[in-house]
Amino acid sequence: MHEIEEDQFGSVSNDDAETGEEPGPQPAAPAGATAPAGPDDDGDPLDEIPAPSLVTDKSDAEEQPTAATAEAEELQEAPAADTVEREALRALESHLGLLREDFSRRATEYENTVRALQSTVEELRAQQLTGLMKPVFQQFADLKAEIDAAASRARERSEEHHADEYEFFSGSIDAILDHFDLESVRATVGDLFDRRAHAAVLRKSTDDPELDQTIARVARQGFRVIGESRVLIPARVIIWRYEPLQDATTSQDATTSASQADDSSR
Length: 266
What we know:
Blueprint: H1 14-19, H2 58-156, H3 160-179, E1 182-184, E2 198-206, E3 215-220, E4 223-225, E5 231-233, E6 235-242, H4 248-265
Parallel strand pairs: 2-6
Antiparallel strand pairs: 1-4, 3-6, 4-5
Helix pairs in contact: 2-3
């Protein structure tokens, strides 16, 4: 009897082929075993080794270029982000500089305003005090004028000792007025009449045109606040007024009136 023989690889023997019987179930090949070459194979053992696959999965093949592209984009975006940050920092520094300049300007304006207000307050206080004391200052100015006139008369009589005493008292009055920041307007005979600093109490006629509107005599010295052009107490003066010779009668009357005014002031 021909038995059906099967080798370990599941091939059927010639006896089975002759009997025509179907072969039975074939045992499984051991793990890792390679099937032998069939009758149609050329029997080359290199053909039995499968070629290594470089890409085992389609999704892996798609992810590789995607990751490389993302990394390249990140490298390109990094310098751009640094540039944006630097520009933002420069803009912030510029804005801070403008804020510092504005603060410094406002602080300077504030200091100037405070100084101006303080100066204005002090000036108003000084003006208020001067205004309240003006009647007293006028009394001092009148007293000084009388003392100066007495000193002049004493020197005319050669009374030098009395003249020196009068001048001493006159200097004391100057010191008192200087304590209140008052100074003399220094009206002098021969000076041109100035309505801002002088008050004409009398006009004397003259036929000399060069003497017209000049001071003939100072009846009382005037005073102003030191450092200001405003005169607090104007000087009382007698001025010349030019008149032609044909008005001799009028001039004589004016001269007589002036003499009477001089006598009354003495």
